Structures are given as structure tokens and as C-alpha cells.
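Newbie here. two chains, one complex. Structure please?
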Amino acid sequence: MTAEIRTSDGELLSVKLKKVERRRRTTAFLLAAPLLFFIVFAYVIPIFQMLGRSIDNAEMNSFLTETHEVMQTWDGSEMPGEDVTSTFYYELKTAVENKYHGKIATRLNYEKGGFTSLIKKTSRKLKNFDENANFLDQFIDVHKKWGDIEYWQALKRGTDAYHFRKYLTTFDYEQKFDGSIERIPEKLRINVTLWLRTIFVAVGVTFCCFILAYPISHLLSILPTRYSNLLMICVLLPFWTSLLVRTSSWMVLLQKQGVLNDTLVSLGFVADESRLELMYNMTGTFIAMTQILLPFMVLPLYSVMKTISPSLMRAATSMGATPFHAFRKIYFPLTYAGISAGSILVFVLAIGYYITPALVGGAKGILISNRIAYHMQQSLDWSLATAMATVLLIAVLVVYWLYNKIVGIDNMRLG
Amino acid sequence: MSRLTKLISLAALLVAPSMATAAEVNVVSWGGAYTESQKLGYGDPYQEMSGVQVNWIDYSGGLSEIKAQVESGAITWDIIDVYARDTIIGCDEGLFVEFDFDNDFPAGVNGMKASDDFFAPMPSDCAVGNILYSWNYAYNTDNVNFDGNYPDSMEDFFNPDKYPGVRSIYSSAMSNLEFALVADGVPASDVYDYMEDNGIDRALDKLTELCTNPKGGCIFWSAGAQPPEQLVSGEAIMATGWNGRHFNAIVNEGSPMKMVWDGQILDYEYFVLVKGGPNQEEAMKALQYFTSSEGLAGSAKHIAYAPFRISSLDVIMADEPWFYSEQAGAVEIMPHMPTAPANTKNYVLMNPEWYADNNTEINDAWEAWKANL
């Protein structure tokens, strides 16, 4: 029989232990609570709210609720009947009185071009309508576009309370009125090209960073501290400079009459007429982005290499391995954690880049993030912007998931 | 008296003097040399004349900020300098005051009533014209490729075989489509009619020819300061841009550049009055002065954008050289105006409604074109 162990105040030890443990956990949680609340309220909730916009069309639906309901029975094969047109007329009239017809016009314009002027012109002429006559004819009299059935079809789908069409647009597909899904006309296809280009740039920059960062990190890790500190400052220096300043400096260096070309010409490597095209193309994008993201590769690699004992390599060579063989079999595998951490960091940062490529990349410098910014700031089609952003977020999460599967997140060393 | 009330009354005492000062008007515009020209041209003179303080606030366009102010009921802006498209949308959404044009705005010095004196009809009831500016192109006169033979038409811009060298064009579709159609032989006044009818494809084909020609090639600018920089650095041999920026580079910085006006696009800028603004009455008076013949002529003293009123040109012409800057001294400004007779032989009038309507299609087609260059 085991005696129950009690503490000095007579409590069971196991109970007391649990209590202490609980108190410790509460304290820890309370300490972290401000940060947690901050992240949840200032980051997680707004993000999900924003992402919700990609399918949410409730406001538009509330503007034209009845029209939308009446349209449910309309199959879209021929022009809508008077039940639809009259409901639409009265709801548009309310909209004009309450001054939200401008919103209706811009939203419907995302569904089909031409709606802005169509709604505006119709709104202006609405007071001249005879409420006893045929509404469709009067609509067509105001603007011949009302005679085009596609506008009525767009009106029906544009007033759905929620929809997933923006996700189709993200990949250059569209849903026809009969429900079939087709690719959009070739001349308007842009997003798939940009997705592929974004991935290409992100992978390419990650690779360039790896090639450049590996020897630097190795050097950093074997140099005596006083030299390695100096080198480390050189690596970190870009961190202390604003992104725009760095990008602009690259423009000064790389342009046709820039420092680099001038030097090459004066040294006689390049003829004056055939100066190198280093900017406003992919070359410029790669050079600038690699330089900007390099520290994110160097730091994890350095932190891993620092822990590798030099004796391991010596042991390998003493047992007859060539330096290359020892590197391949011993040193390189030991740096996997650093490589993967650096790669995932650089890749994730690169996939969301847009200012630098837009400035130095010329026509080829448009990436998917530029389109997101465009739809957020210029076209104001926030649902499309958030649909694209959601896809981008999922893509990053997939990369993270793959990484966790293959390498394991516990092995990540960030420095 | 509790401590709190003491504090509040103290605060009130401190705030009261600033509230009691003379009326002020907050004017919102695009900043830089442009706002400077407005401030010197009519803001400061009005302030001196009326005793009403005119404050200038910078913004980067768009209606999102004023919409937020109106919705939250905390309006601080009185007058805004906006694009045509935004006067339409803002008016539709009830953000701006609708004018009774001829009663609200004085006749010109030439005696013409306001609606006739302004160069073009207003795009909405809430707009009053401010300036006309131009999209045109300029070239670097020092570039060896010209060899004494300089371009003088929009066709030349699109002819890299005759004038080899890289072109710098705007990074969005706006202006490029128009220029391409004009260069392709479409009469400038009919450009937007052609746009409706396959014109975008035609324009893009023309641009493809230019940008893929080994003797040509295109780079893109997005900020107004870029075209002159690219011309001077030799990055481009010709560049489209805003005439005020080209003018500034030529006159104030002495850059070896020349503008070509053939096929230029005339575009407008407007003032609107915010409905329910803090000083609406004072703001209306200020606006009347700003947009008077003398007011609009005033800003042309400092920048090469044309006043919207025809009578303002009379004011300027009576007193040439009108323009003045420290670097260049006094300069005759009339020949540099986008509306000068010599510059308007062949011009396109910007159609904001077409852009508002076809925004999505134009932009998608444009970006797809750029992506596949």
C-alpha cells in the first residue's frame, strides 16, 4: 500500500502540483494575452472579414432585392417580362431618390462593361417614364443597350447575394448564363500568365539567393569574429535602408546610362552602341529582388552552419573522403534545415512582391500582387482583389504544409 | 467645481481663440508644382483680398477619403480638385453641391456668361472647370539617332524605322490607345467612336508593332516626373507625358527636349464643392474667385496648364510674358498652352465616360497585351 504524499499544509501533492501548474499556465497566458488579442482583433478578424468580400454581394442584393427575386423565374432565354422591368424601374427609382444608384452602376459595371453610363443615363431619364406604359420599351428608348439581353442577364447574376465567380475570374474563366464554365476570350486572359510569372520569379529569386547566400554564409561561419562581424554588417546593411531607396539605387546602377554600363563601356568590355539592357526586363527584376531578399537566406544558413563542428569535415577527410565528397555527404546534409528555412522565407516574401518588380521590371514586371493592388486601389473591385488574395494566401499555406510534411516545422532554424 | 469640469473649461479656453479667428477654407489638391501654382495663382491673392485663410491640403485623387468624411459626419474639406470621372460619381452619390452654373459663377472679363466662357461643357452639375492639360510627347534633341531630322507627328512616334530608339509610354492604357489610333490614321476627333468598334485591338496591334520592333522598343512610366528623366538620361529617345512636366524640364531645368503637339490628348481638371462642408458659404465665394477669368489666369503664371476659361487667355495675352520662374525668368506662356491654336491642329478630347464604362475590359486587355509582349 502506498502512502499518500502530502505537502506541509496537508494537501495532496498531486493536487497541489496541478494547482501550481494551472497558476503558471494562467500567468503565461495572461502575459501573452495582450499580443494574442492584438493579433486576433487587428489581424486575423480583419483578414477574414476582408476575405469574405470575395463571395459576399449582400449590399448589392439589398439594393435590388425584389428585382432579383422576380428574376429567379426568368430563364434568360428571351427578353424579361414586364414583371421584371417594372420591379426594376421602381427599385431604381428608390435608388435614385436615395442616391445609391451610383453604387449600383459601378457594381454592375464589374459584371458587364457599359453599365456605368447605362444606369446613369437611365437614372437621369427615370422621371420622364410613363408608369402605365410598357417599361421595357421605355428602357430601350432611353438606351439601346437595354435591348441587349446580356445586360439583363448581368443584372440577374450581379444581384446574387453571394457568388464564387470572382474565383473563376482569378484563373481567367467565366460562368456563362446557362451555368457552363468557359475560358474568357484570349485577348483578355491575364491572370494565369501572372500567376505563372509570379511563381517563376519567386522560385528563381529563391534559387539565386541560395546560390549567392551559401558561400557567404559559409565564409561568415568560419571567419574569426572580428572579420565575420564586419561581413555580417555588410549583409544586414540593406535591412537598414528603405525598400524604395534600394530599388531606386538599382535603377541608377542598372539603367542604360547608369553606373554599371558606364563602367563597362569605359573599360572597353562593351561598345557604346550596344550597352547592356539590365533594367525594364526580367534581368532587372531578378537582380534587384535577389539583393533585397538575400539577408533572409543568409541568416538562417549562417545560424545552422555556425553550429556545424569543423571536426566533422576533418574526420571525413582523414578517413579518405575527397573534399567534395565530404562536403556532399557530411556538410551539405547538415545545412538542410537552414536551406529550407531560408528558402521558405525568401519564397513567401518574393511571391507577394510588387513594388520592386513594377519599378525595375518594365512590361514584364507586373506580378499577381500588382493586380491585387490595382483592383484594391483603382478599379475598386474589392471582391476580385480579395479572391486573388485568398488564392495567394492558400498557395502560401500549401507551401508551408508541404514544408512541414517534408522537412518538419520543428527543424526550421531562423537564426 | 469638479476637477473634470475645471479641466474641460481650461481646454475650452485654450481652443476658443482658434475657433474665433476669421473664416478659413480648406482646398484639397494634388500637391507639388501644381498646388504651388494654384496657391500662388489664386489662393494667396484671394486670402489677401478677402481676409479668409485658404489652406492647401494634398491628396492623391479618388473619392474614398471624402466619402469617409461625409459618412462619418466629420467633414473637413471644402473644395476638391478632381478628375472628370470623380465629379460624376461624387455628384451621383450626393457628396458635392450641385451648381446653378450661370448664377453661381461670374461672367468672364469678356462679358460672356460663365457657361459660354468655359472651354467645354461640364461633365456633371457639381463640376466647375479649372485647367486643361495635355498628354503629348517630347524627344531628346541631343540624341544622335535623329541626325538633324526631327519628328513632328504622332505617326513619327510610332515609326521606329525612321526614328530608331526606345519609346517611353504610360504604364496604363489611358493615352496609349488614343495615340496608337491617331498614328494609325484614325481622325483624332473620332477616336472614341473607333474604340467601340474593335479600336482597342487595332490600337494594341499598332503598339505591338512599335514595341516589338528591334529598332524601337518600349519602356513604361508611371510617375509624371519620369518621362523627362528618361529622355535626359538617354533611356528613351521619345516619351509621352504631361505637357506641364515637359515644359518644366525644358524651361526650368534647361533640358534638351522638344514637345510635339500633333495628336495630343486634351484632358480636364475640375473643382467641386463639398456638400455640408465646414465653411461652405466662404468656400463658395473662394471658388467663385478661383474660377474667375483672373483667378484661372493666375495659376498659368506658374505652370503651363491652360485655364478653363476662354477669357482667361485674354487676360494672359494682354500681359505677356505672363509666366515667371526664378530659373527661367519671364516667359511667354501662350505658345506652350495645350489650347494654343498652333498646338490644337490635331487633338483628341479625353472621354472620361468611355473609360468609366469600359474600365475593366480596357485594363484587362491592356495588361494581357503587356504580359505577352
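Moderator note: The radius of gyration of chain A is 31 Å. Residues 191-411 of chain A form a domain with the MetI-like fold fold (CATH 1.10.3720.10). Thread marked as resolved.
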